Amino acid sequence: MTEKKILHDLGYLEKVLNITCDTLLLINNDNICVDAIMKTNNPILNPNIDVIGQHILSLFPQPTSTLIKRELAFCRHTGETSNVNYDLPTDEQMYYFKFVIHKFDEEHLLCQYRDITQRSNMKYRLKSALTAQLEVGKVAMIGHWTYDLQRQELIHNGYSNLHKRNLEAPEKITLAELLTYVHPDDRKGMEAFLHNDSIENNTFEYRMKQSDVPITYVRATKYAKRLENNVCIIEGFSQNVSDFIKNRNELEMVLAVVDNAPYSIFACHKNGNMAFANKACRKQNGLNEQEDITDLKIFECLREFTTQEAWDLSVQKIISASGYYQYRCDTLYPELDIIGSECSSLMIKNGNGEDIVWTIKRDISDQLRYEEQLLRSKEAAEESERLKSAFISNMNHEIRTPLSAIMGFGSIIADTPDPELRREYGELLNANSSQLLRLITDVLEMSQMDAGKVRLKNSDVSLKGILNELSLSFLPNDEQPAIIFDIPERDLVVWLDRGRVIQVLVNLINNSLKFTPPDGIIHVGYRVREDHIEFYVKDNGIGIAKENQELIFNRFYKINPLDKGTGLGLAICKGIVEQMNGEITVESELGQGTTFIIILPIGKQV
Q1: Mean pLDDT for the chain?
Q2: Which residues pair with 28 in a beta bridge?
Q3: pLDDT tier at 276 (50, 70, 90 boundaries)?
Q4: CATH of domain 377-449
């Protein structure tokens, strides 16, 4: 047998069928399958299912079986071949098949099942892609065009920027006519873009200007070129980007405002990577305006955050505050005279859905200084009110007591014939008069200090002379503690106010006399240092508690409110010493005694 007759040889027919045919089903007039060749492998038809003896329609789900039943009846009645595509839904996926029905004989139909799932899926994907492309083109205002370099003609389809709508049919326009609608500043660029048949520089933005219509911004893109009848044809598309340009311009304007804002503004990723810092922020933290900070951590850029842990803690506070957190930053920027900032941090998602922390810092240094000044003024006013109340209360007692004594003894002395009693009453009158005079003197002294009217009268003064004069003023008295003046052999003459120094030392000695028992000792002297003098008044009296040592120099303060005196003596001493650019201190322990030290700078030495 020659090779030409192989396909006609019945012995090879089965082999040919196995190679070429699809699943074949032979059914009788009751639609019962009587024979089959199974080539299909899906959940409905596969080699593991014995279809012989089964009703063919029972193999297919509704509504597919109903459609097949109608075609089976049509073939039996007409004898014509049915060639129809069907859907075959399963739990796994949707299958598609072609079911070809032939009339085999009067009692049988031959059904050919051909799986077309892959081809159908591809067809549907292409159709969906095309539909999506067309719809996207409409929404995105994209139009396709071809340009004939020889004829200088464009053919548009899709969206037309000229008509501001989608074209129902392709539209032809010459380049010369198109250029009349292009902004004059963009016409040369448009011609160069189209006449350059290279598609390397494939994008060009231009403006279209039409009467009574806002300027339209268009971006043209070339994506291919081809030869057609030896003529170069450029293919491309154009998109109306007016909204994009408008948004871009608005965005650039907003960014310019943020970048030039008088507040420090920065943005950072949650992991601490910097995203943005405006000019004020860069200036505060010593960053160059052109420096790229996006690869830096926040603690590498900003003084406010010194470690990654500090930034992580701040992020947690923002999250706990539902994405908006306000706080005060006390980071100092001495070169900008900033002592405090009011901060607002908020978490905003960027275009990629990532959380970005934006922080705005407002300099509140002037506000803090004003508040501090107000606080000091308030404290000064409260202190003034307290001193006023203390003054009135103290004066009520201190003035009333000697005045009452003066008035009482003044009346009695006139009616007392006994000279001894008259002398005794006279001494009491003098003591109370002196006490009243001392009180008035102290009050006037404090008043002059507050008014700044105290003037120093400096002269060359002998330090030994001061102690010698004091020793003559405080003569030994058996009813008082002993006063020892530590007078060095070598004298020193300095430039200071002799009267004020003696006034301070007298006040301190009187204070020690008041709180030292009669059998106690008081030392008065001075020590010469390299650049200053230290006068001291030291006793072994009752001492002063630690908590009272800072308070004793306050006006009207008395450790024991029942003690005699105005409570102004030590305050006057402190005021005089400070006016002489000096300092007065106290060292004391309860039961051990007290030492007052006056430190005065040495002016001119002789």
Answers
A1: 85
A2: 108
A3: very high
A4: 1.10.287.130
Pairing, β 171-174 against β 142-148: unpaired
| The architecture CATH gives domain 260-363 | 2-Layer Sandwich (3.30)
At 583, list the tokens: 């300092």
Report the half-sphere exposure of 103 (CA within 13 A, side-chain side): 13
Reduced to 3 states (helix: H, G, I; strand: E, B; else coil), residue 416 is coil
* pTM attached to this predicted model: 0.43
CATH of domain 3-122: 3.30.450.20
Residues constituting the chain: 606
Q: What is the band of 606 on the pLDDT scale with cuts at 50, 70, 90?
A: very low
- The stretch 93-99 carries a mean pLDDT of 89
Distance CA 186, CA 175 (A): 13
Q: Does domain 455-601 have CATH number 3.30.565.10?
A: yes
Contacts of 391 (CB under 8 A, 6+ apart): 443, 555, 556
- DSSP notation for 202-214: -EEEEEEEETTEE
∠ CA 187-191-193, nearest 5°, is: 115
Span 160-203, pLDDT tens digits:
888 888 888 899 999 999 999 999 999 999 999 998 867 666 88
**Which CATH number describes the domain made up of 141-246?**
3.30.450.20
